[in-house]
Sequence to fold (480 residues):
Amino acid sequence: MDNLTGRVALVTGAAQGIGYAVATRLAEAGARVVATDVRDQSDLGEHIATRSHDVTSAARWAEVVGEAVAEHGRLDILVNNAGVSGYDQLHELPLAEWERIVAINQTGVLLGMQTALGPMRKQRSGAIVNISSICGATSVRGVAAYHSSKHAVLTMTKNAAVTYAREGIRANAVLPGWIRTPLTLGQTDDLNEAFLDATPMGAGGEPQDVAEAVCFLVSDRARFITGVDLPVDGGYLAR
Amino acid sequence: MDRLKDKVAVVTGGAVGIGLATARLFAEEGATVVVADLDKPEQEVDAPGLEYAELDVTDEDAWSRVVAEVVARHGRLDVLVNNAGVIDYAAIDAVTPEDWARVIGVDQTGVFLGMRAALGPMLAQGSGSIINLSSAWGVVGSEGVAAYQAAKGGVRGLTRNGAVTYACRGVRVNTVIPGWVTTPLTDAQPAEKNAEVIALTPLGYGAEPRDIAWGCVYLASDESRYVTGSELVIDGGLLAQ
Ligand SMILES: NC(=O)c1ccc[n+]([C@@H]2O[C@H](COP(=O)([O-])OP(=O)(O)OC[C@H]3O[C@@H](n4cnc5c(N)ncnc54)[C@H](O)[C@@H]3O)[C@@H](O)[C@H]2O)c1
Ligand SMILES: NC(=O)c1ccc[n+]([C@@H]2O[C@H](COP(=O)([O-])OP(=O)(O)OC[C@H]3O[C@@H](n4cnc5c(N)ncnc54)[C@H](O)[C@@H]3O)[C@@H](O)[C@H]2O)c1
Fold:
């Protein structure tokens, strides 16, 4: 399915987990991929360009997008994937922890869209996918700041979709359920079991499953799809 | 072009419109596709991988016959697209019992009968993907179209029920929610109604049947193996507003 030939894509949080799978999948589909992360990304292979990038830094966003456009002349695809989790319940959530999670998961997505909209509006085309979560559409105990930031990603995505549709720019959200990544493997067994027990398929997904959904949404085959939430969750949200 | 290689699919209402585009793309992607519609189309599309069956989706016995024939001929059934549909524009106070029964019969009971028939071979195989067509009018209110809105809303509930019930047995069930699409159905609508919906669509144009068909390819393929109970909206941003 080499349907992204000639497209230029930027994927955040690409050192591991879902972001790694997305960057690899888009490159396989023919896109020229710029992968960014705060972590070392030397595993990604030489055909993917890597940049050190903290998504909370507006200045660094400008540099990373500016370089991509300088080198390739355009930016077609942005995947805002970088994210962190936090498990505190509301009553014990320190303000600093709230601000850290919101800065990465929510403001990071805002900065990414704002920066990418520059070249995309000039081109009058572009496809943005923001990685939210099943926690962006429903609630589990605790995880207060994560919930709030992932809900915000959904509404920000719809707002961007409606605002920029007439300029040829699409924005969609993917909502992963429990996916096997360093993030979930670092969680307590109790929490992981609770998620899997509540998943109708009774099993978790792989990063590749999310990458396939992203690859479809950024392609021209999805040219009429904008402002949607696509779960990849083994049926979690259907229950 | 082999995303559906070796899969056997049934597409209802496949003679025209969204169903025809879906059947064609499925065949291009390597599937064997049985196009099931009221009558065999006047012009059979002569593409490799396309076969035809007569089916009224409201007819329980016809479903048993068609599914049995497919399994007898091809040994399996991997994908069912419940696409056949009819519309009625009357409001609640004006809809006749006959029109109500006809629309619910095709759009909702027809989907139930299709799912029930396909679940036989799919549960026996331990795999399958069922795709049900709802509509943006199964999500938000529109003036008139009472029976259609009821049926298309019902399809969304039935999809989730099927998804949750059969997830552990390998069968996935998802809904596709089109916005405005150029087909014989919308060609027959009053021009003002069409213009109104397209004006409300953020992308500013209507879809071609292939735009919906690509979504069905994704949901039919193993690329979406972790996706069940979802609603894939393909509407140019209509429902995001
Ligand atoms: N794994 C799941 O089950 C799951 C479920 C729902 C949603 N998600 C979401 O998917 C995305 C990826 O999750 P994952 O499971 O692959 O996580 P992960 O922790 O394995 O990987 C996240 C990556 O983001 C990077 N990152 C963190 N902060 C950053 C920053 N400020 N700037 C740039 N990069 C940063 C990390 O270095 C890491 O490489 C996240 O947004 C997460 O919330 C994951
Ligand atoms: N066109 C749109 O804008 C639009 C929007 C939202 C949803 N949809 C839905 O998508 C599906 C396909 O729509 P379309 O626009 O291609 O419709 P269409 O009217 O162009 O084609 C429908 C097909 O279904 C067949 N059919 C009708 N009753 C049947 C029965 N009892 N048994 C078997 N086949 C039967 C018809 O013969 C026809 O071939 C429908 O379910 C429709 O409600 C369409």
